[in-house]
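Hey, I'm writing a tutorial for new members on how sequence and structure tokens pair up, and I'd like a real worked example in the thread rather than a made-up one. If someone can provide the structure for the chain below, I'll link this post from the tutorial.
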Amino acid sequence: MVEYRTYVTKVLDRSGIASFAVVCIALLIEPLAHATDNSPTKPAETLYMQLTQVGLDPARVYKVRGAALDRPAIHIALEDGTIAFTQDVMGKITGAFFKGDGEILLTPPNEVERRSMSLFTGMAILEERFATAYFRFNDDVPGELRPDLREADDRQELLDHVGLTATNLASTDGMRMLSTFSRMLPVEGSAESAISKDSEPRDRFLHARLQGTKLGVFDVYFDSTAAESVMAGQAKSEEGGETYYNVWTSFAPQQPRAARETKNASAEPESDKPPSGAYAVRNYKIVTDVLPPTHIHSNAVLQCEARETGARTLFFELSRSLKVETLKLGGKDVEYIHNPALEGTELSRRGNDLVAVVLPAPTRAGETFEMEFTYGGEVLAEAGSGLLYVGARGTWYPNRGLQMANFDLEFHYPSEWTLIATGKPSKVAGSDIESSSGEQRSRWISDRPIPLAGFNLGKYQEVTTRAGDVTVETYATKGVERDFPNAPIQVIQPARPTSPTALPPRVIVPSRPSPTRQEVAVGESAAQAIEYFAQRFGPFPYSQLALTQMPGRESQGWPGLVFLSSYAFLDDQQREQLHFDEYRILLQKSVPAHETAHQWWGDLVTWSSYRDQWFSEGLSNYCALMMLLDKNPAGFREVMNGYRHALVGKTKDGSAPMDAGPVTLGTRLLSSKFPGAYDSINYGRGTWLFHMLRTMLKDAAEKQGGHQRPDGEEPFMQALRRVRQRYEGKAISTRELIDAFAEDLPPSLRYEGKKSLDWFLEGWVNGTSVPRIELRSVKITPQGKMNAVSGAILQKEAAKDLVTSVPIYGIIPGKEMVFLGRVFADGEESTFRLTAPAGIRKIVLDPNETVLTYPKN
């Protein structure tokens, strides 16, 4: 018997359910299951079980020749073979298994997606022959194929060979199919559904799992409800057992020209818009009993608003370690299915499962309704020294992704612990009454709608710092987690060990770090960051900031609350004892500022899709490093050079992290090809992109004058302040961000005379190049009281169409370098001509290292 593991690669995006791209690989585990019993009184559960267990129909086996399935950008040819369709579910055929000769052709629409496809398949266009294919669909695929079907003589042969496999594979797309077919369920109080079973679904879905002749098992999806309706990818296991889902390509197909021309010219193209989602959660009221070291029990009341008419199934993420006990809609029990995400998926890496709530009647756009979840389980992890890891096993409340909502959080917890949460502390009703059990109660209400809510719990000591009107509270424990590394023991030999009077060797045993000793320094670091950023981007968005120690190497920011890694509480001596290099030490010391910057970039202004998430990490990181640049320019250069080396460092197969793709691939950068590329690109390249933007704008303003405000604020800060004012409480796309920087673009940065940074967006943001830049054929010619300088700039090891704004300086013996201007290096070789002061004897490119180029050493 062959059993299968299911991989969900796209589940929730910021707007809700994007798609359920899933792939199965033959592995020894049980098929997908859900949390409720198989009762005939539960129509949604019955439907879900039918969708996940449907098998092939012996009466629907055909010979097929010369048939094809076409979806935007996808052509699947069934050249010659046998196909068996599944049994009916609600009167519909929902799947098929093909065996024979076939071919798929999938054409990515742009250079970014073609590079991504080539990285994994060796082909810019997916063109692969296949021997078997399992299809799942919600539209009339049998009708499309009918003209090319003939009666089969050997029906049983195919069924015997693939029947069990097809039944096991049916679970793959169960949740996605449920979202379509639940619309056909009877409306509560009526024997009829809101949508006829004979009508075509409003959405179209096709999943093809193909056994390729060269590429092995892979998946192709078309899902009209997704922001990017076409996707292809493959599950891949690497040495060490880590499993990744490699997304080869994902995109929204381009609309036909005629369709585009019918739209308002000023409107955003429909294919570029993410779906609005069926509903939004506007308010959360959550009461949680926290039972250290591992358990919580919560009651969450969600005030929801329907955004569209006709939805029957709503989806939430919830930790796989939490079990839903009851779920009510308007005070009445409602059906739900708790679907476990499995190893290797993006959802499972976050530690979450899906909860599907099936409504008794379709939604109506604009209506509001209340949902109540009761759930509990082990979502905390105990790390020692009074430290808990909250959310170690996924999200602790029913989450819809990054949607702005108001949060009212109440917690009950033992008296010996300290709890801090997002929001502003508020009085709890009845809290003046002393609890006989010594239980504490606290309540936290968000200042404004926020994208996420969190809490932290520990046996903390607290110190308070101020940043103007903002209170900064820092919470740390006396010790670090159990698995925190020990600094090595040092043995210091005497200078003359053979001397009769020599002292014995001195043994130094480093003590374990105590984060409480660094609380004041950490709090002051965050307070300084608040003041620095508030002067440049506008006021701190929340009433206070709490910093709490968290076990592990990673830190995390929430609105008004920051989880700081224990490593952020080390002093310089402790870092040196652990043998961190200077580059890492500088980054560790900047973590409080980095996480504080997220209060603006990531919490106040969020990102539109996974392609835009890079700006949150890249900009927050750069904001922290701007503070380093002001205090320690040499340290700033050390960090930036560290990022250069991390991007170009070769792996054992000769590739480099920079080859994994541009920053706009977001979480797709996490792949079996480049397991560590996400950090190198999102943080490293992302930081460099903002440094390049800042220095380009600053150089152009200083050279031409008149582009700075009277208070001297530089253009980069003006643009970020504009972004904050325009997008606070909203999501921003990469295009909108770059356009904000281009609004006051000086003429010297207008490539081909256009007031646009499209050249930077296409070549640098959507590109991967780290070029080598060189000077050639320089001539310095006296011209009156000035000199004429000409030459050529070579861009090596870069995309042929890469455009780079390169600063050029002149050297006058005995004096400082003189900035002559910026020129565009366009392609492999570009000539330039500039005017320079008399006395210039030498020309240099980018001496201050403001362009991301290949390391010189």
